[in-house]
Design goal:
Blueprint (H helix, E strand, L loop, with lengths): L17 H9 L5 H5 L5 E4 L14 E8 L4 E4 L5 E9 L2 E8 L13 E11 L2 E5 L2 E4 L9 E4 L8 H15 L9 H6 L5 H9 L4 H32 L11 H6 L6 H14 L6 E6 L6 H13 L3 E5 L3 H17 L4 E4 L5 H11 L10 E4 L13 E7 L6 H10 L4 E6 L5 H8 L3 E5 L10 E5 L4 H13 L3 E5 L34 H11 L5 E4 L5 H12 L5 E4 L12 E6 L7 H8 L10 E5 L8 H12 L3 H12 L30 H17 L7 H11 L8
Helix pairs in contact: 3-5, 5-6, 6-13, 6-20, 6-21, 8-9, 13-20, 18-19
The protein binds adenosine-5'-diphosphate and magnesium ion (MG).
């Protein structure tokens, strides 16, 4: 028993055996530290006691009742039984029932008083409660007012979790040396860690809960900022291939347009970075349609011209295919080999690509590979790695981001983001990546006029579609759901959790893409209507996208799989069905699919036929109608919806943690002032002590969180 610490397995706790440890593992809990950081999902307000007569009708209440009758056990057939007695307060009398818990029989002697917590049912003047929580109550006994409610899984009871967490806290309280430097704790008026951990689980009051939470949120941001900066520093210590030849004239000469000044600047930044022997880590941020792809192409070309290989990774198969379709002809005509590697690539082709990427002979070597996160899979390695570009990186999960930086320690890294990420969050997501901002649109772009309509406009809307198609334009129609949830193997789940936190399946029937495409085809027999969704086979998707790109199809009905990055400049009308179901950033991305060419473009947001549109959804649609600046929209999104979407996890707070890189408690939107403080403090601390040599417990916490061993703590 000599060295129990927060990294000890949960099985060191009395009563936690293999079975319970397995249940904990399902919640991602393996160590005592994990258990302590399994923070409550909510709190029951048991301290807010009321009279039976005033009990809530819509939820649980706490009442203090005196037991009036001897508990009676009633046997039912089928070995079931229940225990029944009456208890009262000044406002009435209540029947209390417990099912299959005969052993409670002696716990409720007549005349004893309890605080009961549960739902009070009312039938005329009669009250009843079924299996309420009961706590013995005396004038002097202290009963905690707030009770933690935890995320559960099979094989665990709330009682067990509460007990195990209390035991873990007691075991570890001995070794409590606070990892946060005292000076910081004082400057930011933060409580001690031991106090915070105790009070987050078993708060004495709302106030102590708030104090506890503030400290823990600070810690999450602080450790994250430290880890991000230190990882970055480690990668800077690795060498990277010097790409001194930064000439991209061959590329620009092939373009049908001139680069904007902002594009020129971004490419100059990239050229400068890649000529160094430290890895570039740069993010190019710019609103949808500003032309980031060509900057990526320039970077790929620079790597190849200097004898290195380059990879471009996109979050969806459709986007990867499109990048390949755009870039492969350019590279091929420059005599540069280029391949597409996605989940759907045939096994034989995958083998060929992997071998060619790894070829020792430079002449046989594949220079450019474009793909999805299939590029991260085992067996993909480069003989002469030079550059990795990720498009829309925030769409990748935390694990994939970590894997990417691990796999490419010695390569230059370029990140492109079309979803403008609020500054506060960019710090969290990208640590201290260098930033190139494309703040200028290619000339001739017009604003995409945006309208919000409901079902009653259907006929007029169809007329508008016809008008656009007759004039030679093309139309996207986006629906939120297909018959089933779309989780194609190679596609990340882009929109699994709806903006209000509920899951798709629980929603009323939505316009299904397939059915809707059929309807539209019937309305427009003279045009070709296609559809696209995540469950389709790759080749099918490809064929549809091809036909639409080539202008052979006028109307494309799809799910959100086209949300990110798709580029068909001739498309001029974006219709979003059940638009109230989408988040702001998603709507902005969708709108960004039109207005990419010279055609005057429109976006029509159609609200669903069934049910009311909530106030929040209204506000979102209003923002879309009046705001065209991607940054303003992203800020709004963060405020309205929280950071889940940006962080690549779901918007559902219950499953926010994944891979340790996201937050359990902190909310980068709500807690943004703590985020700012913690980030500044982390930088200052690292400036004086880059390896945290003077703070061993802080250092081990950060490295555990980031899963880094390599050279971080020396
Ligand atoms: P995003 O930044 O959203 O990735 P893309 O790179 O897909 O944007 O570019 C959008 C469209 O703008 C493409 O059709 C591209 O060919 C075009 N484009 C890019 N740069 C320019 C430019 N300087 N002038 C005119 N059109 C451009
Ligand atoms: Mg793009």
């Amino acid at each position: 028993m000599d060295c129990i610490n927060e990294y000890s397995p949960v099985t060191v706790l009395a009563g936690v055996g293999k079975a319970r440890a397995a249940s904990y593992a399902k919640l991602g809990i393996e160590t005592l530290g994990d258990l302590i950081r399994h923070y409550p999902r909510a709190y029951e307000n048991r301290g807010d006691v009321c009279l039976l007569a005033d009990a809530r009708i819509d939820g649980k209440s706490a009442v203090i009742l005196t037991v009036a009758t001897e508990p009676k056990s009633v046997r039912l057939r089928s070995h079931k039984s229940f225990l029944k007695f009456r208890a009262f307060d000044d406002s009435g009398s209540c029947e209390i029932v417990y099912f299959n818990q005969d052993y409670l029989k002696n716990q409720f002697p007549v005349g004893s008083v309890f605080r009961f917590f549960g739902k009070v049912e009312r039938n005329g003047k009669r009250f009843s409660m079924s299996s309420p929580v009961a706590e013995a109550w005396t004038e002097t006994a202290y009963l905690p007012p707030l009770w933690a409610v935890y995320r559960m899984t099979e094989g665990l009871s709330p009682k067990q979790i509460t007990k195990d967490i209390a035991a873990a806290l007691a075991l570890l309280s001995v070794e409590k040396d606070d990892p946060l430097p005292l000076a910081l704790r004082e400057r930011r008026s933060l409580c001690m860690l031991a106090y915070a951990e105790r009070n987050i689980h078993r708060p004495d009051s709302w106030q102590s809960l708030a104090i506890a939470r503030r400290r823990l949120v600070y810690d999450e941001f602080f450790c994250f900022a430290l880890g991000a900066a230190m990882t970055h520093a480690v990668s800077k210590r690795h060498g990277a291939p010097i790409c001194a030849n930064g000439d991209v004239k061959e590329l620009t000469a092939m373009l049908p347009y001139r680069l904007t000044n902002a594009q020129e600047r971004a490419i100059a930044d990239i050229r400068r970075d890649m000529a160094q022997d430290v890895p570039m880590s740069r993010i190019v941020v710019g609103d949808v349609g500003c032309g980031k792809t060509v900057c990526a192409a320039a970077a790929l070309l620079i790597a190849v011209k200097n004898g290195r290989q380059a990879a471009l990774m996109a979050p969806t198969e459709i986007l990867a295919r499109q990048h390949y379709a755009d870039l492969a002809p350019i590279f091929t005509s420059l005599g540069i080999s280029c391949a597409l590697l996605i989940g759907a690539t045939s096994a034989a082709e995958k083998r060929r690509i992997k071998a060619a990427l790894n070829a020792a002979d430079p002449d046989a070597r594949l220079s450019v590979v474009i793909g999805t996160h299939a590029l991260l899979s085992d067996g993909v390695s480069f003989a002469a790695p030079g550059l990795v570009v990720t498009d829309e990186q925030h769409r990748f999960g935390a694990r994939q981001r970590a894997l990417l930086s691990e796999k490419n320690a010695h390569a230059h890294l370029l990140v492109m983001s079309a979803t403008p990420i609020p500054r506060s969050l960019a710090l969290v997501l990208y640590g201290d990546l260098d930033l190139s901002k494309i703040d200028e649109m290619p000339p001739g772009r017009q604003r995409v006029d945006t309208f919000v309509v409901d079902e009653s406009y259907r006929t007029r809307l169809n007329g508008f579609i016809r008008k656009q198609a007759e004039a030679g334009g093309q139309v996207y129609v986006v629906c939120p759901a297909v018959e089933e949830r779309e989780t194609a193997s190679d596609e990340l789940e882009l929109c699994d959790i709806l903006p209000d936190g509920t899951r798709k399946e629980e929603q009323p029937p939505l316009k299904a893409a397939v059915k809707y495409a059929e309807e539209l085809q019937a309305v427009f027999p003279e045009y070709r209507v296609g559809f696209l969704h995540g469950k389709m086979k790759s080749a099918e998707k490809d064929a549809v996208m091809q036909a639409f790109s080539a202008g052979k199809m006028q109307i494309l009905v799809s799910t959100t799989v086209i949300e990110v990055g798709v580029n068909v400049p001739n498309a001029c009308l974006m219709i979003v069905e059940n638009a109230e179901r989408f988040g702001l950033s998603q709507l902005h991305q969708l709108r960004g699919r039109v207005g990419r060419g010279t055609r005057k473009s429109y976006c029509v947001l159609v609200t669903g036929g069934t049910g009311e549109v909530s106030e929040r959804s209204r506000a979102r649609l209003d923002t879309m109608r009046t705001t065209y600046d991607g940054y303003a929209i992203a800020e709004q999104d963060l405020i309205q919806r929280g950071p889940g979407d940006f962080l690549g996890s779901s918007a559902d707070g219950a499953v926010r943690q994944s891979g340790g890189l996201t937050f359990r408690l902190a909310d980068a939107g709500e807690d943004s002032s703590i985020l700012t403080d913690a980030t500044a403090d982390a930088r200052a601390l690292l400036a004086s002590d880059p390896t945290l040599a003077a703070y061993p417990s802080l250092a081990s916490r950060v490295s555990a969180m980031f899963d880094i061993n390599e050279g971080l703590i020396s």
